[in-house]
Amino acid sequence: MFLLRSTVFQILFYILNLVVMIVFSPLLLLPRKWGGWVMPVWSKILQILMRFVAGIKVEVRGRENLPQGGFIAAMKHQSAWETFALIPLFSGPTFILKRELRWIPIFGWYTAKYRQIPINRGKRSEALTAMMLAAKQTIAEGRQILIFPEGTRRPAGAEPKYKSGVAHLYRDLNCPAVPIAHNSGLYWPRSSWRVYPGTVIVEILPPIEPGLPANVFQERMVAEIETASDRLIEEARQAKRPSPVLEQVDRLRQTRSA
């Protein structure tokens, strides 16, 4: 049953993405300010699909911790889910994403039109310089920078591997950074065709105000995100039908502690 439901969802997910991109494509020819609603609406359409086909609901805690204006949102990265589902939480979301996504037909045009920040992972120093220039402009405009500090998706329960890029942003942009934890990897696992019904819990943690040394900020951010993410994974065990991914979580934790 999981496999059939997952197959239907995955097929509809990619078809719906393509349809939405084509339907909204005339906006690419209009001034950017006229299309500010595109990303949130796109996200909500996909979440409706997830709710009624995959059985994945969402609970968001801590909305009151989101500051006004520009800030950094440092998000746990376990799944494809958070790449779109968290967008409606922000008034001016700007993802930092790998440059190769710009090369995807149609989708790449949207990332350019709505000024998402590409980064060339192959040229670290040049990439950081370009990222910082774009990020400063984003914050000056009162928009939010959405970043996955681990750089790539990590399985729920896996040892975290955070990069230093977010600490450089925090230090140089002099703005708040909001840690965001969740347990999406239990329901849409990394590199898996299967999706599992349940409730993804998102926890928006209190902002870390500017002014800390970069290394102190990094340690605090990692500790807060990981502590909250682990707590949300444990909370998911209490569901009437716990996700089968929890078995993998336990194996990964045993490997880490061995």
TrEMBL record:
Residues 236-258 are annotated as: Disordered. Pathway: Lipid metabolism. GO terms for molecular function: 1-acylglycerol-3-phosphate O-acyltransferase activity. Coiled coil: none annotated. Residues 71-185 form the Phospholipid/glycerol acyltransferase domain. GO terms for biological process: phosphatidic acid biosynthetic process. Keywords: Acyltransferase, Membrane, Transferase, Transmembrane, Transmembrane helix. The chain crosses the membrane at residues 7-28. It holds the Pfam family Acyltransferase. The keyword Acyltransferase applies. Residues 248-258 have a biased composition (Basic and acidic residues). PANTHER family: 1-ACYL-SN-GLYCEROL-3-PHOSPHATE ACYLTRANSFERASE. This is 1-acyl-sn-glycerol-3-phosphate acyltransferase. It comes from Roseibium marinum.
